[in-house]
């Protein structure tokens, strides 16, 4: 059996996502948020959360956002610069204005910027992951560059609509996860 490339895995998982209904994603996202409550990650202050792109059928992070706000956690969201392929991170506040980038990403217009080293927990978007905690993103490396700048004790939690692969192709700069939450279970790495 031939090994799939990262691009082939991306195509496969984008096709899997395309079959999901809004109801499927909603139910799965709620189950993921409920599973997140079982993790021992709630002692921190700053929690980085990606804001979902519904057109890409991502995990809906609104449920997690409500949990974080209910626990009085400071939520941090990103703004991507597609020229530098870097992200800036801003505190999400009541008065934060969110705009959709030309790529459909909900992002803060501006606000109080935080450094990656200040963040305690990062909820990481992904297309796929494997049983060793390797993740597959969209391929631009935004999150790998960001996660490299976080503290070594920052907890990295992937959110996946699908279960783990046995093995994904890796690059040396790929940053592995500490946990990955699916609708059915929690993977610990």
UniProtKB/TrEMBL annotation:
Its cofactor is Mg(2+). GO terms for molecular function: 5-formyltetrahydrofolate cyclo-ligase activity; ATP binding; metal ion binding. Keywords: ATP-binding, Ligase, Magnesium, Metal-binding, Nucleotide-binding. Pfam families: 5-FTHF_cyc-lig. InterPro entries: FTHF_cligase (IPR002698), FTHF_cligase-like_sf (IPR024185), NagB/RpiA_transferase-like (IPR037171). SUPFAM superfamilies: NagB/RpiA/CoA transferase-like. ATP binds at residues 6-10, 135-143. Transmembrane segments: none annotated. Its EC number is 6.3.3.2. Substrate binds at residues 53, 58. Belongs to the 5-formyltetrahydrofolate cyclo-ligase family. This is 5-formyltetrahydrofolate cyclo-ligase. It comes from Cochleicola gelatinilyticus.
